Amino acid sequence: MEPSSSPTSDGAADIAAYRQQVEQAAAVVRESLKTTPRLGLILGTGLGRLADQITIDATLSYDEIPQFPVSTVESHDGRFLAGTLRGVPVLAMQGRFHLYEGYSPREVTLPVRVMGTLGIDTLLVSNAAGGMNPQFAQRDIMLITDHINLQGANPLVGPNVDAWGPRFPDMSEPYDPTLRTWAEEVALEHEIKLQQGVYVAVVGPNLETKAEYRMLRRMGADAVGMSTVPEVIVARHMDLRVLALSVITDECFPDALAPVSLDEVLAAADAAEPHLTTVMAGVVERIGATTSVAS
User: Fold this and answer.
1) What is residue 2's DSSP assignment?
2) Within 10 A of 95 (CB to CB), how many other CB atoms are there?
3) What is the rounded distance in angstroms from the CA atom of residue 214 to the CA atom of residue 53?
4) Domain boundaries in the chain?
5) Which of 124, 134, 112, 276 is nearest to 194 (CA)?
6) Please, which residues have CB within 8 angstroms of residue 261's CB and are 6 or more apart in sequence?
7) Omega before 66 within 30 of 0, i.e. cis
8) What would the pLDDT profile of 59-99 be if each residue is shown by its tens digit?
9) Total-model pTM
10) What are 116-148's pLDDT values in tens digits?
11) Is 3.40.50.1580 the CATH classification of the domain at 7-294?
12) Cα separation, 16 vs 159, whole angstroms
């Protein structure tokens, strides 16, 4: 029997190749930048219109960026935007990647690695989620305070790249308290109802059964979705501040569970989008004001 390669040697080669992929992608995006980006945005479900407020310097389709995955989800545009938002230099992803599309955890999080390499220090994320907390209603916005990873995968598995972050990154406070406070302040100023809770990430793409919703709720989760957690893990590994918001697109109450369609999910996200955009834009404005004071 041929001896197999050791996990250490194979893993080292894999991570070296992955790091090279990140650098190649970053080099192409860097050519389009007029200034170093401060902020990264993942414009997931419910936040597409925020792109309309960005003064765009450059637009890159994902297929123009070497090593980049291509979004296969119908509601995700698949473009990288570089520009300024409320005076803050930003990089924005219009469309993200998911494990259920067949991508690996490293592929899903490659754009966050690229944005971190290009200089961002803060990542803002949105997603669609099913609400399991009985106090939640469809079209509510939930400020994520913590998460549970039930995707059975972690983008940090394998050899660590010390230049990116520590081998064992702390996750005691993955969602930045200051950013969360600012989100609460903006919501209050604009009289926007802002729920708060724990987000649990599963693989998908199917929605959950009644029994699964009961289990997830008993575990302490308030909303369930199929994204965000891998990106947050990588962001914290790179010491980026993180804020994440969920649009509650369907009510997942086991004793009153009804079938839900993609059209219904998108309609709920569209209805909540103005409020979500207002909160995110207000937080960006505070980030810009803090930067101005600091400089």
Assistant:
1) P
2) 22
3) 40
4) 7-294
5) 276
6) none
7) no
8) 999 989 998 887 665 555 688 999 999 999 999 999 899 99
9) 0.93
10) 999 999 999 999 999 999 999 999 999 999 999
11) yes
12) 9
